[in-house]
């Protein structure tokens, strides 16, 4: 065995250690998130349900937020500058909104809970760094983009999903509520990758030797990761919507389940979050399919052959288009649209796991 | 001061909309009580299911058409389309006839039903076509009126402000000493600076921005038509065929009779093929020889010489590899697969050469363990009568006799040929087309060979010979050549598909990322002589940024309309309009909605 391949094998081993360490730290983050939810439940506030039903809290909060004063320097016509206060902007909930405010988050009003939540985010960040390093070492060991088989695709996919979440956090978006679900699914994703999908590093079949691999597959991974975040938002939207309907119908909003629901963002916010995520990557997903068609044209001489992978990409795309339509169609907004979004994501998952494993086609590079 | 208010304070939307032409108010995104101001933020068709018509045939037709072009039906058709695409991904399709045949053999009871339902060619079946044709009719019925409507909106002015700006999703107000005219003029300037289309009416300004959203949406839907037309072109005019070429042979001339398989399009058949030809010099493959990736291919390349036209004396050197097709004489040649062709000499019972040449064997795994058949139809038996011979078995580029017919490396390190032999009737005259790579041994008898392996077969190296019992003939393994298979394809519609695809993505991005929104600024003189400035903004429901934008516009306005020290945002953030305008109704309606604190 020559030196280069020994180095490569070392790199592949480092990658495996890193991925395993990342899993360990993700598990810690998962536990910290659990603690966040548990402590948060002890901080129930009595006023909550009254405020919820009245919907006044929302308006009050919005008005308060709007009133937050910002001082601005403006040039006056005379040439000097004066300091003026930015005028208040009053926002009004849109018609789809029930006026129910966002929950306080997993930690509720508990400071302990919040501390655990922040610990969880730190662990997630650390785990993500290890995870990314694992992916990079894998790439170095095979000396190409780390997405030639399902194992590599899975680990990259997980790191992009967590990266997108951390990016949203860094942008000060209110998304910490995803944390518990995200760490759970990343643990599943990596566990599955290591135990079932693992392939020792190997070279690509020549058909994959193309810069389209970089373009097409990286876009597919990013699309999938963001679709995933949207799917979590959609799922929680359905639960929370259910809870809000019950609340509006006069249910007291007590009990363990309600206690979890209470702390989530409002149904309207979750719905908006899911929509924004889906709408953000839908054009990218469209591009992914078109890039795939261009690649197929270069490799096989046909840009579209209804190969199972192509077919399921198409199905996924059409169902997401249906979801976007549903949101613009009276009578289909809300829950029905949300179900469509979940079906669409299921199609995406099936295209990835199901088609790779159970259906053979030209895209058979799963390595399992 | 109520003079600036138009009549009709009953809370109903007033018809102050500027001439928006023939455009009817839309029900797409009704913002309660905003009337015309809130309408037409998109051109989506109204989504009320009309009551059933009672107007005879014409009425029915019109009703049907309206249903077909509604968003609801488009949605259902989209869903149907995705459902209909599923079976084709699970059941073998006619583009891979071998798999279809296997499936039919394995499921003889269900296959006739599948056949009748068109499940072996889903994507050209009548029901699949019906769905997408309906969808596209619906699409056409949708985008044509939407385009006119959009043009109407472009020519119209931004709609006038709703009476109660406080009802808008974002609202801001303060009092200033500047005159209403000055404020309105400044507001118009600010909005223009932010690239809003504006309309000044008295001392109120209406501004609208983000028309590209609608334009992008229309572009996207039109591009879908482009894609459909390109697909149609492709399937009408594309033709492709496959050909396996053995290295060092005469090569290939572009003639459908010489293809292994050929499928033409309606507009492009065998007669339209451009003349050209090529020979395969050799197939160049490099494999990793060590490390965990040992045996994986690093390079596949077919080295060829080609010519265009019918004159094969002037040839050009070329190379074809995966992902790098070669364009010859207007047609494209793709490398599809490759393998080995053992060169053999077969002698019959008379000692004459009955066959000599390479026989392509078909790879079964990545180490190129290959299977194949040497068919010798023209042999003469020992008794002088015609007797057909066949040798069937494996070829292993790197084999070992202890391990059985399994190759351990794809390169030619230790080539072995593993064969059993038959004689009798090959069945070539039966008229049923035969797969050249498979043997139908039903009318053949197997020879008993000198076997060492326990199987009735022999393993030979290059240069060695298998002798059939009793001098009935022999097979000599002379060497190995490479072969490569190619798809030669003629294509149309590629460019238009690409352009449509790019337009679709561009349109989508505009449609999803651009926010269409309206901002109104109203300046009114209050009873105390000061001017009340009001700003209101409306975006599509997904827009959060409208509040920020209102804030920014306000900040830009402040130099021209400095807030009065006692009338600034501090003192009267939200209650301003009532106290200035004092209509009791206003207060009531807004309170009812719980719009503000
Ligand atoms: C060929 C199938 C179709 C596909 C793939 C498709 C796709 C899309 C997509 C992805 C959007 C999202 C843009 C957004 O949310 O703003 C959209 C919007 C829209 N589509 Fe389609 N569409 C199709 C057919 C149709 C048809 C048949 C109609 C007519 C009824 C239609 C009417 C609309 C309208 C009105 C919008 C804008 C909705 C809005 O304003 O939010 N589409 N379409």
Automatic annotation (TrEMBL), chain A:
NCBIfam families per UniProt: cytochr_II_ccsB
What keywords sit in the KW lines? Cytochrome c-type biogenesis, Membrane, Transmembrane, Transmembrane helix
Q: Which residues form the Cytochrome c assembly protein domain?
A: 147-359
Q: Which GO terms describe its biological process?
A: cytochrome complex assembly
Mode of membrane association:
Multi-pass membrane protein
Q: Which residues cross the membrane?
A: 17-39, 119-141, 153-171, 178-199, 211-239, 279-300, 312-330, 337-355
* GO CC term, one of those recorded: plasma membrane
Protein name (Swiss-Prot/TrEMBL): Cytochrome c-type biogenesis protein CcsB
Main localization is: membrane
InterPro entries xref list? Cyt_c_assembly, Cyt_c_biogenesis_CcsA, Cyt_c_biogenesis_CcsA/CcmC
Alphabetically, the GO molecular function entries are: heme binding
A Pfam match is: Cytochrom_C_asm
* Annotated source species: Actinacidiphila guanduensis
Give its localization.
Answer: Membrane
UniProtKB/TrEMBL annotation, chain B:
Does Acetylation show up as a keyword for this record?
Answer: no
Every copy of the ResB-like domain together lies at 71-550
Give me the Gene Ontology terms describing cellular component. membrane
How does this protein sit in the membrane?
Multi-pass membrane protein
Chief location bin = membrane
State any GO BP term from the record. Answer: cytochrome complex assembly
The places in or outside the cell where this protein is found are: Membrane
Q: Which superkingdom?
A: Bacteria
Where are the compositionally biased (Basic and acidic residues) regions?
Answer: 588-597
Instruction: List the residue ranges of the region (Disordered).
Output: 1-34, 556-597
For this UniProt record, the keywords arranged alphabetically read as follows: Cytochrome c-type biogenesis, Membrane, Transmembrane, Transmembrane helix
Any transmembrane segments, and where? 73-91, 127-148, 218-236
Q: Which InterPro entries match?
A: Cyt_c_bgen_Ccs1/CcsB/ResB, ResB-like_domain
> PANTHER family given for it?
CYTOCHROME C BIOGENESIS PROTEIN CCS1, CHLOROPLASTIC
This one is known as Cytochrome c biogenesis protein
């Amino acid at each position: 065995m020559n030196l280069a391949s020994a180095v490569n094998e070392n790199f592949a081993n480092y990658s495996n250690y890193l991925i395993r360490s990342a899993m360990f730290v993700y598990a810690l983050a998962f536990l910290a998130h659990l603690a966040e939810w548990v402590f948060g439940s002890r901080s129930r506030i009595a006023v909550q349900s009254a405020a919820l039903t009245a919907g006044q809290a929302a308006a009050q909060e919005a008005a308060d937020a709007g009133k937050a004063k910002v001082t601005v320097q403006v040039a006056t016509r005379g040439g000097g500058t004066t300091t003026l206060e930015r005028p208040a902007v009053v926002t009004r909930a849109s018609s789809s909104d029930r006026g129910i405010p966002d929950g306080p988050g997993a930690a509720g009003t508990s400071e302990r809970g919040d501390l655990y939540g922040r610990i969880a985010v730190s662990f997630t960040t650390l785990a993500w760094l290890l995870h990314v390093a694992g992916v990079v070492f894998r790439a170095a060991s095979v000396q190409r983009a780390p997405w030639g088989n399902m194992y590599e695709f899975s680990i990259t996919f997980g790191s992009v999903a967590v990266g997108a979440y951390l990016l949203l956090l860094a942008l000060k978006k209110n998304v910490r509520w995803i944390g518990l679900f995200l760490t759970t699914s990343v643990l599943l994703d990596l566990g599955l990758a290591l135990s079932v999908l693992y392939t020792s590093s190997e070279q690509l079949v020549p058909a994959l030797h193309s810069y389209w691999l970089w373009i097409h597959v990286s876009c597919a991974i990013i699309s999938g990761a963001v679709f995933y975040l949207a799917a979590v938002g959609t799922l929680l939207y359905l639960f929370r919507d259910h809870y809000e309907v019950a609340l509006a119908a006069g249910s007291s909003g007590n009990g363990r389940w309600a206690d979890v629901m209470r702390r989530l963002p409002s149904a309207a916010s979750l719905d908006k979050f899911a929509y924004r995520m889906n709408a953000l990557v839908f054009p990218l997903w469209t591009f992914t399919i078109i890039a795939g068609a261009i690649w197929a044209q270069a490799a096989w001489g046909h840009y579209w052959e209804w190969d199972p992978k192509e077919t399921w990409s198409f199905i996924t795309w059409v169902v997401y288009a249906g979801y976007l339509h549903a949101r613009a169609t009276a009578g289909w907004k809300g829950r029905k649209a949300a179900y469509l979004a979940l079906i669409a994501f299921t199609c995406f998952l099936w295209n990835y796991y199901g088609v790779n494993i159970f259906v053979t086609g030209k895209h058979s590079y799963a390595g399992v | 001061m109520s003079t600036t208010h138009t009549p009709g304070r009953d809370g109903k939307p007033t018809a102050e909309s500027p001439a928006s032409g023939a455009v009817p108010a839309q029900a797409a995104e009704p913002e309660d009580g905003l009337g015309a101001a809130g309408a037409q933020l998109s051109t989506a068709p109204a989504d009320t299911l009309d009551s059933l018509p009672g107007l005879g045939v014409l009425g029915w037709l019109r009703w049907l058409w309206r249903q077909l072009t509604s968003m609801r039906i488009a949605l259902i058709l989209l869903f149907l389309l995705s459902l209909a695409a599923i079976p084709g991904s699970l059941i073998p399709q006619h583009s891979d006839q071998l798999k279809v045949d296997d499936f039919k053999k394995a499921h003889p009871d269900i296959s006739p039903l599948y056949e009748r339902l068109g499940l072996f060619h889903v994507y050209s079946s009548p029901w699949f076509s019906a769905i997408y044709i309906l969808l596209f009719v619906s699409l056409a019925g949708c985008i044509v009126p939407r385009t006119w409507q959009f043009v109407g909106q472009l020519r119209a002015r931004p709609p006038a402000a709703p009476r109660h700006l406080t009802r808008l999703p974002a609202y801001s107000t303060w009092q200033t000493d500047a005159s209403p005219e000055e404020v309105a003029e400044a507001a118009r300037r600010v909005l223009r600076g932010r690239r809003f289309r504006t309309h000044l009416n008295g001392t109120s300004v209406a501004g609208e921005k983000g028309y590209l959203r609608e334009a992008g949406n229309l572009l996207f839907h039109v591009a879908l038509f482009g894609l459909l037309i390109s697909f149609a072109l492709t399937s009408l005019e594309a033709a492709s065929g496959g050909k396996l070429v053995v290295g060092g042979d005469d090569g290939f001339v572009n003639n459908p009779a010489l293809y292994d398989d050929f499928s033409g399009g309606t507009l492009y058949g065998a007669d339209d093929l451009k003349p050209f030809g090529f020979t395969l010099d050799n197939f160049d493959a490099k494999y990793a020889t060590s490390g965990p990736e040992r045996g994986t291919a690093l390079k596949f390349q077919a080295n060829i010489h080609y010519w265009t036209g019918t004159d094969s004396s002037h040839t050009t050197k070329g190379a074809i590899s995966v992902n790098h097709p070669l364009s010859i004489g207007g047609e494209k040649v793709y490398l599809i697969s490759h393998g080995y062709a053992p060169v053999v000499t077969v002698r019959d019972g008379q000692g004459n050469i009955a066959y000599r040449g390479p026989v392509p064997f078909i790879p079964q795994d990545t180490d190129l363990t290959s299977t194949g058949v040497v068919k010798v139809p023209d042999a003469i038996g020992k008794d002088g009568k015609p007797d057909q011979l066949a040798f069937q078995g494996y070829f292993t580029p790197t084999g070992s006799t202890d391990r059985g017919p399994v190759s351990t490396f794809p390169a030619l390190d230790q080539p072995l040929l593993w064969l059993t032999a038959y004689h009798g009737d090959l069945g070539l005259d039966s008229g049923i087309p035969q797969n050249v790579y498979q043997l139908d041994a039903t009318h053949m008898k197997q020879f008993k060979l000198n076997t060492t392996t326990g199987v009735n077969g022999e393993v030979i190296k290059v240069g060695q010979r298998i002798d059939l019992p009793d001098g009935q003939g022999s097979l000599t393994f002379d060497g190995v050549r490479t072969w490569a298979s190619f798809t030669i394809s003629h294509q149309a519609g590629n460019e238009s598909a690409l352009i449509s695809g790019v337009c679709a993505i561009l349109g989508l991005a505009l449609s999803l990322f651009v926010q269409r929104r309206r901002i109104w600024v109203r300046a009114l003189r209050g009873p105390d002589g000061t001017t009340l400035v009001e700003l209101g903004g409306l975006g599509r429901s997904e827009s959060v940024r409208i509040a920020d934008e209102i804030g920014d516009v306000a900040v830009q306005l402040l130099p021209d309309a400095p807030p009065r020290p006692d009338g600034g945002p501090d003192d009267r953030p939200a209650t301003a309009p009532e106290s200035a305008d004092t209509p009791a109704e206003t207060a009531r309606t807004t309170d009812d909605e719980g719009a503000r604190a």
